[in-house]
Amino acid sequence: MSDPLRLGIAGLGTVGVGVVRIIRQQAALLEARTGRPISISAVSARSQGKDRGVNLSDYQWEDDPVAVAQRDDVDVFVELMGGEDGPAKAATEAALKAGKDVVTANKAMLAINGQVLAELAESKGRAIRYEAAVAGGIPVIKTLMEGLAGNEITRVMGVMNGSCNYILTRMENAGKTYQEIFAEADGLGYLEADPQLDVGGIDAAHKLAILSSIAFGTKVDFDGIQLEGIERISIEDIRAAADMGYKIKLLGVAQRTGRGLEQRMQPCLVPDTSPLAQLDGGTNMVVLEGDAVGQIVLRGAGAGEGPTASAVMADVCDIARGIRGPVFGQPATTLVRAKAALTQLPASYYLRMELVDKPGALAKIATVLGEAGVSIDRMRQYAHENTAAPVLIVTHKTTQSSLDAALANMENTRVMAGVPVALRIEEV
Ligand code: NAP
Ligand code: HSE
Question: CB neighbours (10 Å) of residue 340?
Protein backbone atom coordinates (compact mmCIF):
# COMPACT_ATOMS: atom_id res chain seq x y z
CA MET A 1 0.00 0.00 0.00
CA SER A 2 1.26 3.54 -0.76
CA ASP A 3 2.16 5.88 2.07
CA PRO A 4 -0.75 7.94 3.34
CA LEU A 5 -0.86 11.66 2.65
CA ARG A 6 -0.96 13.16 6.14
CA LEU A 7 -2.74 16.47 6.71
CA GLY A 8 -2.50 19.07 9.46
CA ILE A 9 -5.58 21.28 9.53
CA ALA A 10 -5.65 24.73 11.14
CA GLY A 11 -9.16 26.14 11.32
CA LEU A 12 -12.19 24.03 12.22
CA GLY A 13 -15.00 26.39 11.29
CA THR A 14 -17.43 26.02 8.39
CA VAL A 15 -14.80 24.90 5.88
CA GLY A 16 -12.48 22.99 8.23
CA VAL A 17 -15.31 20.84 9.57
CA GLY A 18 -16.46 20.20 5.99
CA VAL A 19 -12.99 18.92 5.10
CA VAL A 20 -12.85 16.64 8.16
CA ARG A 21 -16.29 15.24 7.22
CA ILE A 22 -15.26 14.43 3.64
CA ILE A 23 -12.04 12.76 4.78
CA ARG A 24 -13.93 10.63 7.31
CA GLN A 25 -16.89 9.79 5.10
CA GLN A 26 -15.13 9.33 1.74
CA ALA A 27 -11.92 7.58 2.80
CA ALA A 28 -12.32 4.67 0.38
CA LEU A 29 -13.25 6.85 -2.58
CA LEU A 30 -10.35 9.24 -1.96
CA GLU A 31 -7.89 6.36 -1.72
CA ALA A 32 -9.24 4.74 -4.89
CA ARG A 33 -8.91 8.00 -6.79
CA THR A 34 -5.49 9.10 -5.56
CA GLY A 35 -3.89 5.71 -4.97
CA ARG A 36 -3.11 6.41 -1.32
CA PRO A 37 -4.97 6.94 1.94
CA ILE A 38 -5.56 10.51 3.05
CA SER A 39 -5.33 10.96 6.80
CA ILE A 40 -5.34 13.75 9.36
CA SER A 41 -2.49 13.88 11.89
CA ALA A 42 -3.26 17.08 13.80
CA VAL A 43 -5.76 19.90 14.01
CA SER A 44 -5.89 23.39 15.52
CA ALA A 45 -8.47 26.04 16.23
CA ARG A 46 -8.91 28.77 18.82
CA SER A 47 -10.96 26.82 21.31
CA GLN A 48 -10.29 23.12 21.90
CA GLY A 49 -13.45 22.51 23.90
CA LYS A 50 -15.96 23.62 21.27
CA ASP A 51 -18.41 20.99 19.99
CA ARG A 52 -17.94 21.07 16.22
CA GLY A 53 -20.28 18.21 15.33
CA VAL A 54 -17.46 15.94 14.10
CA ASN A 55 -15.28 13.43 15.92
CA LEU A 56 -11.81 14.91 16.35
CA SER A 57 -10.57 12.44 18.95
CA ASP A 58 -8.36 10.58 16.46
CA TYR A 59 -6.25 13.67 15.79
CA GLN A 60 -3.55 15.39 17.81
CA TRP A 61 -4.57 18.85 19.03
CA GLU A 62 -2.25 21.87 18.77
CA ASP A 63 -3.12 25.26 20.25
CA ASP A 64 -0.70 26.94 17.85
CA PRO A 65 -1.29 26.60 14.07
CA VAL A 66 2.45 27.07 13.48
CA ALA A 67 3.05 23.90 15.51
CA VAL A 68 0.68 21.99 13.19
CA ALA A 69 2.54 23.35 10.18
CA GLN A 70 5.90 22.15 11.54
CA ARG A 71 4.95 18.64 12.72
CA ASP A 72 7.01 15.75 11.33
CA ASP A 73 3.84 13.72 10.75
CA VAL A 74 2.26 16.39 8.52
CA ASP A 75 2.87 16.38 4.74
CA VAL A 76 0.31 19.03 3.79
CA PHE A 77 -0.69 22.02 5.90
CA VAL A 78 -4.35 22.93 5.32
CA GLU A 79 -4.94 26.56 6.30
CA LEU A 80 -8.63 27.26 6.94
CA MET A 81 -8.50 30.07 9.50
CA GLY A 82 -8.69 33.15 7.25
CA GLY A 83 -7.17 36.61 7.50
CA GLU A 84 -4.69 38.29 5.17
CA ASP A 85 -1.77 37.94 7.59
CA GLY A 86 -1.61 37.00 11.30
CA PRO A 87 -1.66 33.29 12.16
CA ALA A 88 -2.69 32.23 8.63
CA LYS A 89 0.35 33.79 6.97
CA ALA A 90 2.73 32.86 9.81
CA ALA A 91 1.68 29.21 9.71
CA THR A 92 1.71 29.08 5.89
CA GLU A 93 5.27 30.42 5.86
CA ALA A 94 6.29 28.00 8.61
CA ALA A 95 4.84 25.08 6.64
CA LEU A 96 6.64 26.03 3.43
CA LYS A 97 9.94 26.55 5.27
CA ALA A 98 9.48 23.12 6.85
CA GLY A 99 9.08 21.62 3.36
CA LYS A 100 5.31 21.03 3.46
CA ASP A 101 2.78 21.73 0.73
CA VAL A 102 -0.06 24.11 1.61
CA VAL A 103 -3.76 24.05 0.73
CA THR A 104 -5.80 27.11 1.67
CA ALA A 105 -9.19 28.73 1.06
CA ASN A 106 -7.88 32.14 2.07
CA LYS A 107 -8.40 34.67 -0.73
CA ALA A 108 -7.47 37.64 1.45
CA MET A 109 -4.04 36.19 2.23
CA LEU A 110 -3.33 35.36 -1.42
CA ALA A 111 -4.66 38.65 -2.79
CA ILE A 112 -2.42 40.64 -0.45
CA ASN A 113 0.57 38.35 0.13
CA GLY A 114 0.32 35.96 -2.84
CA GLN A 115 3.53 36.99 -4.58
CA VAL A 116 5.79 36.64 -1.54
CA LEU A 117 4.21 33.33 -0.57
CA ALA A 118 4.44 31.99 -4.13
CA GLU A 119 8.14 32.88 -4.32
CA LEU A 120 8.76 31.17 -0.98
CA ALA A 121 6.83 28.04 -2.01
CA GLU A 122 8.58 27.74 -5.36
CA SER A 123 12.03 28.33 -3.83
CA LYS A 124 11.29 25.32 -1.60
CA GLY A 125 9.83 23.20 -4.39
CA ARG A 126 6.44 23.16 -2.64
CA ALA A 127 2.89 23.91 -3.75
CA ILE A 128 0.28 26.35 -2.52
CA ARG A 129 -3.12 25.26 -3.80
CA TYR A 130 -6.23 27.40 -3.33
CA GLU A 131 -9.17 26.24 -5.46
CA ALA A 132 -11.57 27.08 -2.61
CA ALA A 133 -10.38 30.67 -2.39
CA VAL A 134 -12.23 31.78 -5.55
CA ALA A 135 -15.92 31.06 -6.11
CA GLY A 136 -16.15 28.27 -3.50
CA GLY A 137 -17.10 24.98 -5.12
CA ILE A 138 -16.61 26.13 -8.73
CA PRO A 139 -13.35 24.67 -10.13
CA VAL A 140 -12.32 27.96 -11.69
CA ILE A 141 -8.61 27.89 -10.76
CA LYS A 142 -8.17 24.47 -12.36
CA THR A 143 -10.15 25.51 -15.43
CA LEU A 144 -8.08 28.64 -15.93
CA MET A 145 -4.70 27.14 -15.09
CA GLU A 146 -5.06 23.75 -16.75
CA GLY A 147 -8.10 23.57 -19.01
CA LEU A 148 -7.35 26.89 -20.72
CA ALA A 149 -3.54 26.68 -20.62
CA GLY A 150 -3.38 26.89 -24.43
CA ASN A 151 -5.32 30.14 -24.62
CA GLU A 152 -4.41 33.76 -24.41
CA ILE A 153 -7.01 34.89 -21.90
CA THR A 154 -8.79 38.00 -23.12
CA ARG A 155 -11.24 38.66 -20.29
CA VAL A 156 -12.21 37.28 -16.89
CA MET A 157 -15.51 38.34 -15.49
CA GLY A 158 -17.84 37.24 -12.78
CA VAL A 159 -20.21 37.51 -9.87
CA MET A 160 -18.01 36.20 -7.09
CA ASN A 161 -19.68 37.29 -3.88
CA GLY A 162 -22.82 35.35 -3.06
CA SER A 163 -23.90 37.70 -0.28
CA CYS A 164 -24.02 40.71 -2.60
CA ASN A 165 -25.86 38.73 -5.25
CA TYR A 166 -28.32 37.57 -2.61
CA ILE A 167 -28.94 41.16 -1.50
CA LEU A 168 -29.40 42.51 -5.03
CA THR A 169 -31.71 39.74 -6.23
CA ARG A 170 -33.69 39.73 -2.99
CA MET A 171 -34.18 43.51 -3.22
CA GLU A 172 -35.65 43.01 -6.69
CA ASN A 173 -37.82 40.00 -5.80
CA ALA A 174 -39.13 41.39 -2.50
CA GLY A 175 -39.29 45.02 -3.62
CA LYS A 176 -37.46 46.05 -0.45
CA THR A 177 -34.72 48.59 0.22
CA TYR A 178 -31.01 47.89 0.51
CA GLN A 179 -31.15 48.58 4.25
CA GLU A 180 -34.03 46.13 4.80
CA ILE A 181 -32.37 43.30 2.86
CA PHE A 182 -28.94 43.98 4.36
CA ALA A 183 -30.50 43.50 7.81
CA GLU A 184 -32.22 40.32 6.62
CA ALA A 185 -28.98 38.87 5.18
CA ASP A 186 -27.12 39.76 8.36
CA GLY A 187 -29.81 38.06 10.47
CA LEU A 188 -29.55 34.91 8.36
CA GLY A 189 -25.76 34.80 8.93
CA TYR A 190 -25.01 35.35 5.22
CA LEU A 191 -22.54 38.18 5.79
CA GLU A 192 -18.90 38.03 6.88
CA ALA A 193 -18.13 39.03 10.48
CA ASP A 194 -17.08 42.35 8.92
CA PRO A 195 -19.94 42.89 6.40
CA GLN A 196 -17.89 45.56 4.62
CA LEU A 197 -15.81 42.74 3.15
CA ASP A 198 -18.95 41.63 1.31
CA VAL A 199 -20.97 44.76 0.54
CA GLY A 200 -17.86 46.90 0.02
CA GLY A 201 -16.79 44.51 -2.75
CA ILE A 202 -13.48 43.68 -1.00
CA ASP A 203 -14.02 39.90 -0.78
CA ALA A 204 -14.97 39.73 -4.46
CA ALA A 205 -12.01 41.94 -5.38
CA HIS A 206 -9.64 39.59 -3.55
CA LYS A 207 -10.94 36.80 -5.79
CA LEU A 208 -10.66 38.89 -8.94
CA ALA A 209 -7.04 39.82 -8.10
CA ILE A 210 -6.14 36.12 -7.91
CA LEU A 211 -7.87 35.21 -11.18
CA SER A 212 -6.31 38.18 -12.92
CA SER A 213 -2.80 37.10 -11.93
CA ILE A 214 -3.31 33.61 -13.36
CA ALA A 215 -5.05 34.87 -16.50
CA PHE A 216 -2.54 37.56 -17.44
CA GLY A 217 0.75 36.35 -15.92
CA THR A 218 0.93 39.36 -13.61
CA LYS A 219 1.83 39.79 -9.96
CA VAL A 220 -1.34 39.70 -7.93
CA ASP A 221 -2.35 43.35 -7.56
CA PHE A 222 -5.31 43.93 -5.26
CA ASP A 223 -4.50 47.65 -4.97
CA GLY A 224 -4.77 48.01 -8.75
CA ILE A 225 -8.50 47.14 -8.69
CA GLN A 226 -11.00 49.96 -9.10
CA LEU A 227 -13.37 49.05 -6.31
CA GLU A 228 -16.92 50.02 -5.47
CA GLY A 229 -19.43 48.07 -3.39
CA ILE A 230 -23.20 47.82 -3.59
CA GLU A 231 -24.17 50.23 -0.82
CA ARG A 232 -25.44 52.98 -3.15
CA ILE A 233 -27.70 50.66 -5.17
CA SER A 234 -31.31 51.59 -4.52
CA ILE A 235 -34.53 49.72 -5.20
CA GLU A 236 -35.36 52.55 -7.63
CA ASP A 237 -32.27 51.69 -9.69
CA ILE A 238 -33.05 47.98 -9.65
CA ARG A 239 -36.58 48.68 -10.89
CA ALA A 240 -35.49 51.23 -13.48
CA ALA A 241 -32.72 48.98 -14.79
CA ALA A 242 -35.24 46.14 -15.14
CA ASP A 243 -37.54 48.46 -17.06
CA MET A 244 -34.72 49.19 -19.53
CA GLY A 245 -33.90 45.45 -19.91
CA TYR A 246 -31.04 45.04 -17.41
CA LYS A 247 -30.12 43.53 -14.03
CA ILE A 248 -27.67 45.09 -11.60
CA LYS A 249 -24.81 42.84 -10.48
CA LEU A 250 -21.64 43.36 -8.46
CA LEU A 251 -19.42 42.45 -11.38
CA GLY A 252 -15.69 41.86 -11.46
CA VAL A 253 -13.93 42.37 -14.77
CA ALA A 254 -10.25 41.96 -15.63
CA GLN A 255 -8.95 42.50 -19.14
CA ARG A 256 -5.87 43.68 -20.97
CA THR A 257 -6.31 46.95 -22.81
CA GLY A 258 -3.95 49.09 -24.89
CA ARG A 259 -3.52 51.23 -21.79
CA GLY A 260 -2.69 48.44 -19.36
CA LEU A 261 -4.50 45.93 -17.20
CA GLU A 262 -8.04 46.95 -16.35
CA GLN A 263 -9.31 45.41 -13.12
CA ARG A 264 -12.54 46.57 -11.60
CA MET A 265 -15.16 45.38 -9.16
CA GLN A 266 -18.25 47.53 -9.28
CA PRO A 267 -22.03 47.39 -9.65
CA CYS A 268 -22.83 47.16 -13.36
CA LEU A 269 -25.88 46.63 -15.50
CA VAL A 270 -25.91 43.44 -17.57
CA PRO A 271 -28.51 42.62 -20.24
CA ASP A 272 -31.32 40.61 -18.65
CA THR A 273 -30.91 37.95 -21.36
CA SER A 274 -27.26 37.29 -20.41
CA PRO A 275 -26.21 34.29 -18.28
CA LEU A 276 -25.00 36.62 -15.52
CA ALA A 277 -28.45 38.16 -15.24
CA GLN A 278 -30.02 34.74 -14.57
CA LEU A 279 -27.98 34.35 -11.38
CA ASP A 280 -30.26 34.44 -8.35
CA GLY A 281 -29.44 34.34 -4.65
CA GLY A 282 -26.04 33.34 -3.31
CA THR A 283 -24.80 31.53 -6.41
CA ASN A 284 -21.57 32.55 -8.19
CA MET A 285 -20.78 32.71 -11.89
CA VAL A 286 -17.42 33.14 -13.59
CA VAL A 287 -17.07 33.88 -17.29
CA LEU A 288 -13.69 33.14 -18.89
CA GLU A 289 -12.79 34.20 -22.41
CA GLY A 290 -9.83 32.84 -24.38
CA ASP A 291 -8.65 33.48 -27.92
CA ALA A 292 -9.00 29.85 -28.96
CA VAL A 293 -11.85 28.56 -26.81
CA GLY A 294 -14.19 31.55 -26.91
CA GLN A 295 -16.39 31.97 -23.85
CA ILE A 296 -16.73 29.51 -20.93
CA VAL A 297 -19.38 30.03 -18.25
CA LEU A 298 -19.00 28.35 -14.85
CA ARG A 299 -21.78 28.48 -12.31
CA GLY A 300 -22.22 27.00 -8.84
CA ALA A 301 -22.17 27.45 -5.10
CA GLY A 302 -19.62 30.07 -4.12
CA ALA A 303 -19.70 29.35 -0.40
CA GLY A 304 -20.87 26.96 2.30
CA GLU A 305 -19.45 23.91 4.03
CA GLY A 306 -19.88 21.28 1.32
CA PRO A 307 -18.95 23.29 -1.79
CA THR A 308 -15.90 24.92 -0.22
CA ALA A 309 -14.63 21.67 1.35
CA SER A 310 -15.15 20.01 -2.04
CA ALA A 311 -12.70 22.50 -3.58
CA VAL A 312 -10.18 22.05 -0.73
CA MET A 313 -10.29 18.29 -1.27
CA ALA A 314 -9.67 18.68 -5.02
CA ASP A 315 -6.37 20.35 -4.13
CA VAL A 316 -5.53 17.72 -1.51
CA CYS A 317 -6.19 14.96 -4.07
CA ASP A 318 -3.93 16.63 -6.64
CA ILE A 319 -1.11 16.78 -4.12
CA ALA A 320 -1.74 13.13 -3.20
CA ARG A 321 -1.31 12.29 -6.90
CA GLY A 322 1.92 14.30 -7.04
CA ILE A 323 0.42 17.13 -9.12
CA ARG A 324 1.86 20.49 -8.05
CA GLY A 325 2.96 23.26 -10.44
CA PRO A 326 3.62 26.97 -9.99
CA VAL A 327 1.29 28.83 -7.64
CA PHE A 328 -0.09 31.29 -10.22
CA GLY A 329 0.29 29.05 -13.28
CA GLN A 330 3.83 30.15 -14.22
CA PRO A 331 6.94 30.57 -12.06
CA ALA A 332 6.40 33.41 -9.58
CA THR A 333 9.68 35.07 -10.58
CA THR A 334 8.40 35.40 -14.18
CA LEU A 335 5.17 37.17 -13.21
CA VAL A 336 5.31 40.81 -14.28
CA ARG A 337 4.05 43.85 -12.44
CA ALA A 338 0.90 44.95 -14.28
CA LYS A 339 0.68 48.47 -15.56
CA ALA A 340 -2.75 49.47 -14.29
CA ALA A 341 -5.07 50.97 -16.92
CA LEU A 342 -6.07 54.29 -15.41
CA THR A 343 -9.07 54.61 -17.70
CA GLN A 344 -11.71 52.00 -18.47
CA LEU A 345 -12.60 50.87 -21.97
CA PRO A 346 -15.57 52.86 -23.36
CA ALA A 347 -19.00 51.56 -22.40
CA SER A 348 -22.64 52.50 -22.47
CA TYR A 349 -23.94 54.01 -19.24
CA TYR A 350 -27.24 54.05 -17.44
CA LEU A 351 -28.20 57.42 -15.97
CA ARG A 352 -31.09 58.02 -13.60
CA MET A 353 -31.95 61.52 -12.56
CA GLU A 354 -34.74 63.68 -11.24
CA LEU A 355 -35.33 66.85 -13.24
CA VAL A 356 -37.18 69.97 -12.21
CA ASP A 357 -40.37 69.74 -14.26
CA LYS A 358 -40.25 72.95 -16.29
CA PRO A 359 -39.93 73.74 -20.01
CA GLY A 360 -36.47 73.11 -21.47
CA ALA A 361 -35.15 70.98 -18.58
CA LEU A 362 -34.69 67.86 -20.66
CA ALA A 363 -33.20 69.90 -23.50
CA LYS A 364 -30.56 71.31 -21.13
CA ILE A 365 -29.52 67.81 -20.05
CA ALA A 366 -29.37 66.61 -23.65
CA THR A 367 -27.21 69.63 -24.51
CA VAL A 368 -24.79 69.00 -21.63
CA LEU A 369 -24.42 65.38 -22.69
CA GLY A 370 -23.93 66.36 -26.33
CA GLU A 371 -21.33 69.01 -25.46
CA ALA A 372 -19.33 66.37 -23.55
CA GLY A 373 -19.50 64.06 -26.58
CA VAL A 374 -21.95 61.67 -24.91
CA SER A 375 -24.60 60.39 -27.28
CA ILE A 376 -28.04 59.27 -26.05
CA ASP A 377 -29.20 55.84 -27.16
CA ARG A 378 -32.49 55.62 -25.27
CA MET A 379 -34.37 57.92 -22.94
CA ARG A 380 -37.52 57.55 -20.85
CA GLN A 381 -39.43 59.95 -18.62
CA TYR A 382 -41.93 58.56 -16.14
CA ALA A 383 -45.29 59.86 -15.01
CA HIS A 384 -44.97 61.68 -11.70
CA GLU A 385 -47.06 63.55 -9.19
CA ASN A 386 -44.51 65.87 -7.62
CA THR A 387 -42.41 68.64 -9.14
CA ALA A 388 -39.47 66.41 -10.06
CA ALA A 389 -39.62 64.22 -13.18
CA PRO A 390 -37.82 60.86 -13.07
CA VAL A 391 -35.73 60.42 -16.23
CA LEU A 392 -33.69 57.44 -17.42
CA ILE A 393 -31.05 57.64 -20.12
CA VAL A 394 -28.99 54.88 -21.73
CA THR A 395 -26.01 56.32 -23.56
CA HIS A 396 -24.11 55.01 -26.55
CA LYS A 397 -20.58 53.88 -25.77
CA THR A 398 -18.57 56.65 -24.21
CA THR A 399 -15.55 57.13 -22.00
CA GLN A 400 -15.73 57.51 -18.22
CA SER A 401 -14.03 60.92 -18.56
CA SER A 402 -16.63 62.23 -21.04
CA LEU A 403 -19.38 61.00 -18.77
CA ASP A 404 -17.76 62.57 -15.69
CA ALA A 405 -17.48 65.88 -17.57
CA ALA A 406 -21.17 65.73 -18.47
CA LEU A 407 -22.19 64.86 -14.91
CA ALA A 408 -20.12 67.76 -13.54
CA ASN A 409 -21.74 70.19 -15.98
CA MET A 410 -25.24 68.93 -15.15
CA GLU A 411 -24.83 70.47 -11.71
CA ASN A 412 -24.70 73.94 -13.33
CA THR A 413 -27.92 73.54 -15.34
CA ARG A 414 -30.19 74.35 -12.35
CA VAL A 415 -32.65 71.71 -13.57
CA MET A 416 -31.37 68.80 -11.46
CA ALA A 417 -33.40 67.77 -8.42
CA GLY A 418 -30.86 65.66 -6.55
CA VAL A 419 -27.71 63.83 -7.60
CA PRO A 420 -27.85 61.69 -10.76
CA VAL A 421 -26.95 57.98 -10.60
CA ALA A 422 -24.57 56.64 -13.27
CA LEU A 423 -23.82 52.94 -13.69
CA ARG A 424 -21.73 51.21 -16.32
CA ILE A 425 -23.42 48.74 -18.69
CA GLU A 426 -21.22 45.71 -19.31
CA GLU A 427 -21.37 43.80 -22.58
CA VAL A 428 -21.44 40.09 -21.79
P1 NAP B 1 -14.86 30.23 10.30
O2 NAP B 1 -16.09 29.42 10.27
O3 NAP B 1 -14.89 31.56 10.95
O4 NAP B 1 -13.73 29.35 10.97
C5 NAP B 1 -12.44 29.85 11.23
C6 NAP B 1 -11.71 28.80 12.04
O7 NAP B 1 -10.39 29.27 12.27
C8 NAP B 1 -12.33 28.54 13.42
O9 NAP B 1 -12.30 27.17 13.68
C10 NAP B 1 -11.40 29.27 14.39
O11 NAP B 1 -11.33 28.65 15.66
C12 NAP B 1 -10.08 29.13 13.67
N13 NAP B 1 -9.15 30.18 14.02
C14 NAP B 1 -9.29 31.50 13.89
N15 NAP B 1 -8.20 32.14 14.36
C16 NAP B 1 -7.37 31.18 14.79
C17 NAP B 1 -6.09 31.18 15.41
N18 NAP B 1 -5.47 32.32 15.68
N19 NAP B 1 -5.53 30.00 15.74
C20 NAP B 1 -6.16 28.83 15.49
N21 NAP B 1 -7.38 28.76 14.91
C22 NAP B 1 -7.95 29.93 14.57
O23 NAP B 1 -14.31 30.48 8.82
P24 NAP B 1 -14.67 29.66 7.50
O25 NAP B 1 -15.94 30.19 6.97
O26 NAP B 1 -14.52 28.22 7.74
O27 NAP B 1 -13.52 30.19 6.50
C28 NAP B 1 -12.22 29.69 6.56
C29 NAP B 1 -11.46 30.21 5.34
O30 NAP B 1 -12.13 29.78 4.16
C31 NAP B 1 -11.38 31.73 5.22
O32 NAP B 1 -10.16 32.09 4.63
C33 NAP B 1 -12.52 32.08 4.29
O34 NAP B 1 -12.35 33.28 3.59
C35 NAP B 1 -12.45 30.91 3.34
N36 NAP B 1 -13.69 30.62 2.63
C37 NAP B 1 -14.84 30.38 3.31
C38 NAP B 1 -15.99 30.08 2.62
C39 NAP B 1 -17.28 29.78 3.33
O40 NAP B 1 -18.27 29.50 2.67
N41 NAP B 1 -17.32 29.82 4.66
C42 NAP B 1 -15.96 30.03 1.21
C43 NAP B 1 -14.77 30.25 0.54
C44 NAP B 1 -13.63 30.54 1.25
P45 NAP B 1 -12.62 28.55 16.64
O46 NAP B 1 -13.62 27.71 15.92
O47 NAP B 1 -12.11 27.87 17.85
O48 NAP B 1 -13.06 29.95 16.86
N1 HSE C 1 -18.74 36.10 1.84
C2 HSE C 1 -18.41 35.29 0.72
C3 HSE C 1 -19.59 35.33 -0.26
C4 HSE C 1 -18.14 33.87 1.18
O5 HSE C 1 -20.67 35.84 0.10
O6 HSE C 1 -19.45 34.92 -1.39
C7 HSE C 1 -17.40 33.06 0.17
O8 HSE C 1 -16.17 33.59 -0.18
Answer: 16
